[in-house]
Amino acid sequence: MGILRRNLTAYGFLCAALACFAVFAWYPMVREFVLSFQKTDLINPPEWVGLDNFTAAVQDPAFGEAWLNTVEFTLLALLCGYAVPFVVALVLNELRHARAYLRFVVYLPVMLPPIVAVLLFRWFYDPGPGLFNQVLGAVGLPPLAWLDSSSTALISLVLVSTWMNMGSATLIYLAALQNIPPELYEAAELDGAGILKRVRHVTIPQTRLILLLMLMLQIVATMQVFIEPYMLTGGGPENATVSVAYLMYQFAFSQMNYGQAGALGMMLMLALLVFAALQLRTTREDQA
Amino acid sequence: MQRSTGLLLVTVLGLAATACGSGEPASPSAGGAEAVTITVACQPAKSAPKERQAWDDDVATFMKNHPGVTVKSTDQQPCFDPKTFGPKMAGGQMETVFVVPVTNYADVIGKGQALDITPYTSTIKNWNDLRPDVRELVTKDGKVYGVPNVHYGVGLVYNRALFTKAGLDPNSPPATWAEVREAAKKIAALGQGYVGYGEYSGGNTGGWHFTQAIYGRGGSILTPDNTKAAFNSPEGKAVLQTLHDMRWVDNSMGNKLLVGWESLMMAMGSGKVGMMLGAPDVVTDVVNKFKGNVADYGITGFPEAKASLSGGEAFMINPKATPEEAKAGLAWLDFRFNTVGKGRFDFARGKALGNPVGVPDNDVYGDSPTGKAIQADRVKNASLPVENYEPYVRAAATIPPKAEPVHAQELYAILDVPMSGVLSRKDAGIDQLLADAETKANSLLAAKG
């Protein structure tokens, strides 16, 4: 009883947090699970339909393309969005001047509302007066179709996504880099290690946990790509940028197939759970 | 990217809303009659203060004329949003009287989301003057589920100022697709940034305009029994071939894919796009929302039209409304929307408020006595050059309307692909694009049963 009284405040905070999670995270997940086995118009009583929603989702003409695009987007986003912020963090960490200013500049895009950032890129990508084609023209290169070609649309979305989100990742890497004891670098330098060797044998091993954590988090986040195709391409051209989350949105709010959207959501959640489990395992192994 | 993780949660929260009653319980009024409160959709937004004041004045007058009835307005813009429709209905937040576009009639009626108002049709003002084919669209199995409010067919919207600038006669707009191509070439030749003919290609708008175009050429999206795709046809190929040639041979369509409704409207409003498929409401929207110069726009009949995709909207009553609420809601519709010279048909007031009056954007009453009276009043109070719309009015009277296909949104998503294909790839194989879309559409139709 004494322990309970002593920790009453802590339990109070815990209950509030649990209530928030229950209402805003766990309950919707359970409802989505239930919804994926029901046919509902949200008005009449729902009807249990077994796996029909899953079958319908898989049979949708854009299902395969959506998954392929999502995987491709995730891989490309990792290539850009995982490596670039790490390199930028390394450079920022080495700088001796204007560090605060440059960190601010790198983080600035994160502070822009996503919709503003996306609209900004819509102008950058404009095949006529857009910034990117003007730059290409200035250096004597032919213009690109960017969002208007099925061969460049997806990578164009990756660039938007990377620009919008690299600030946060860079700051996290930077924090990790600053926790590395400087004597390790000094020792490496005494042993004759150059920059690349110091990165390979000191920086990467010392930030391994953060790198793995960020890898998993980025996979989970990028696989839910939605804003970019929704705002910039409408899934086109020729379905080249339809993502799983975009297709889910189409099911629910264009086609009013809420159960089918729920089923696709469950499939995406299962795929993401694999990465979440890997993340947990990695963290535990590292702590052990 | 983590910002997008909220999508799932937001979606599910929206879907997880639970149903509850919509109407407030009736209580006796001071006079002893049953008091009733209704909510009505489509109040103009605060950003349009004059129109909003006119609406509020109508509400006040209506309540004065109908003691015991309280009207509460909602100003969600747009009035009908498919993203919020289901959750609003489920959450008991749907208005007693709400609007539904023609594209969603079948869906809303089929799902029991609208009240059967058959018993009340005899009391609806001018009901018999509404076009029979338009009334048919809100009727299922002999039961009526809505009061048609707006109806129009698709035509060719064009920029008269650009026609003049390009040496074309704005009073002789193109009547064939060959003439459309020639006019588009001349407009595009005006210089960089000029687009002869604008067209959609994504976000389901590409498929929507493909449907408009194939209907106009006499083709269909589905077979008559709605079990198979019918767009892989000479008419479908002609639609895509014309677009392909205008884009890549004539270079008259600009070099930007247009995704989403507002993209082409914005381009049209900029004054640098010569022509687009559209109904008369395009002119109203281009002028009101996208800063187009009203004198510049005209509309003519669909080139070589054999049929026209129906557009429009109807008011429907919340299925949870009590009989008293339903009657009060229909009385409101009569007062505000169905009376010549009153409410939305008070063109004199509209002109005084500075609204664009004169666009023939509503043919819901056809050439019935009510329709003729409305048209005469519209012309009498016109603030726009009505002669710019005469070619459309003449053509519209001769072109039969054609309803959207079943599973329209799913099919439009499929048809976005061939549309974006021909507009983004010079080497696009039209036969292959249509064959692929046909396979997908047939799979979809088979799965839907």
Automatic annotation (TrEMBL), chain A:
Cellular compartments annotated: Cell membrane
Keywords, in A-Z order: Cell membrane, Membrane, Transmembrane, Transmembrane helix, Transport
Pfam families per record: BPD_transp_1
Q: How does it sit in the membrane?
A: Multi-pass membrane protein
> Can you tell which superkingdom this protein's organism belongs to?
Bacteria
GO CC, sorted alphabetically, is:
plasma membrane
Keyword Heme: yes or no? no
Q: Which InterPro entries match?
A: ABC_transporter_permease, MetI-like, MetI-like_sf
Which GO terms fall under biological process for this protein?
transmembrane transport
User: Where does the chain cross the membrane?
Assistant: 7-27, 73-92, 104-125, 153-176, 209-227, 258-278
Q: Where is the ABC transmembrane type-1 domain?
A: 67-279
Gene3D superfamilies attached to this UniProt entry: MetI-like
Q: Which family does it belong to?
A: Belongs to the binding-protein-dependent transport system permease family.
What name has this protein been given in UniProt? Sugar ABC transporter permease
Native source species: Nonomuraea deserti
Lineage start: Bacteria, Bacillati, Actinomycetota, Actinomycetes, Streptosporangiales
TrEMBL record, chain B:
Q: Which Gene3D superfamilies match?
A: Periplasmic binding protein-like II (3.40.190.10)
Which organism is the protein's source? Answer: Nonomuraea deserti
Q: What does UniProt list as this organism's lineage?
A: Bacteria, Bacillati, Actinomycetota, Actinomycetes, Streptosporangiales
Keywords annotated in UniProt: Signal
This protein is called Extracellular solute-binding protein
Q: Does the keyword Mitochondrion apply?
A: no
KW Nucleotide-binding (keyword) present: no
What is the superkingdom listed in this entry's lineage? Answer: Bacteria
User: Could you say which residues form the signal peptide?
Assistant: 1-19
